[in-house]
Protein: Large ribosomal subunit protein uL18
Organism: Sulfitobacter brevis
Amino acid sequence: MANTKRQLFLKRRMRVRNKLRKVNAGRMRLSVHRSNKNISVQLIDDVNGKTIASASTLEKALGVVGHNNIDAATKVGSAIAERAKKAGVEEAYFDRGGFLFHGKVKAVADAAREGGLKI
């Protein structure tokens, strides 16, 4: 029986996350979720199981409510980098989930790097 798109996505997501767990040296995880309308990012401490910081296009403060394009992803990436600095986090692993590393997901990572977060 063939796998559905959702099952394949979940397999990819777990494959990426398991690889990150193997090489994780106490770093935080920068997790990205992209929907059809929005993009959100979380900085997660896997040891304690807590979210340290987050940013999303749903936030009115970023001025990109309801936009899911590369400009919005760039603003979200720079916002998470700035919030990570405030929380005292300088390094993180980039968890792309089951999404391919191009387009909006890549824009988030590039903007976070430019903001000073070491990925």
Q: What stands out?
A: The longest helix spans residues 5-23. The chain has a mean pLDDT of 91.
